[in-house]
Input
Amino acid sequence: MNPLTELPHDLLELPANQLHNKINSHSLFLVKGKVTRPLFVSVLQHGDETTGWEALRRFLKNHRTNLPRSMVVYFGNMEAAAHNLRLVNGQLDHNRCWPGLHQQQNPTAKKLAQLTETIKALNPFASVDIHNNSGRNPHYAGINALKGEFINLASLFSDTIIHFTSPDGTQSGAFAQFCPAVTLECGQAGTADGTEQTITFLENLIHLPHLHQVPGVAEHQEVMNMFSTVKIKKNTPFSVAHANAQAAFVIERDLDQHNFKWLSPGTPFGTLQSGHQEMPLVVTDPMGLDITDLYFERRGDQVVLKQNVMPAMITPSERAIQLDCLCYLMRPIDRISQPEQPLREIS
Ligand SMILES: [Zn+2]
Output
């Protein structure tokens, strides 16, 4: 394996939309620190989610000469970042192309499978993938395994922790096979508090010798399980907040205010326009099974919840809904006790 190139320091001067002038998508760089075993950090898998890079470049500027632990930095989608877009039309979502259940054969998936092997060989200390949301959400951390080290890693960022195994092909899901991995969701891009919280997280993490026990972290953390995805049915024209002539379904205004709140049966998600009868939402479990009938029903022209759930990542962005989904549904996992004994290292 070729040794990784060191991160050129002048990159730290560039905002996300300028990086494409200097580096390609899927670039990997080493930043040398005192402890050799590296922390892996991924930024800009979605090109308009800039908090990760903003936080990382400020963090690295603060540690030009005294980084406590080496880091490997991964730059995701530079073409999309150049245009401040989640992804460029025609591109695949990079964060659905990492090694997972579905063995994808497209060129992006092949590239990311190679990269995964490269990083795995470096035996990373932990993996951190940094994102933003397009809707209003608390800042939260997502993990793919309910192990003590994963929960400790997530707790360094937020008390709001979710466990998810779907969608397939995420970076954190792939790396969870060989090191503690977390996805940070830092609220909406461009907000200062998300950047500050991420810098504090990196600052605390980079000094830790291990993740068996983390000082100051509560003994028990409540973790929510993200058990289903809500999408708009394919070929159902929709709009958010305002009816238009084409829309069969109009999603409620300010629906994203419900994120991370318990909702009761009868909570409206949207209204079917006259002449349209068909359920516009489709809810799937992690295996892809259609479970819509359990969660939504029509009451007159309204589409309402059928049982208590907590939604996450509801977005008001029509483009984000089209490219990804309307939201996820969550339920609590019984409080997870951390083991008394330190967990053994994940090999
Ligand atoms: Zn993202």
In short: Residues 46, 49, 131 surround zinc ion (CB under 6 Å). Residues 335-347 have pLDDT under 50 and may be disordered.
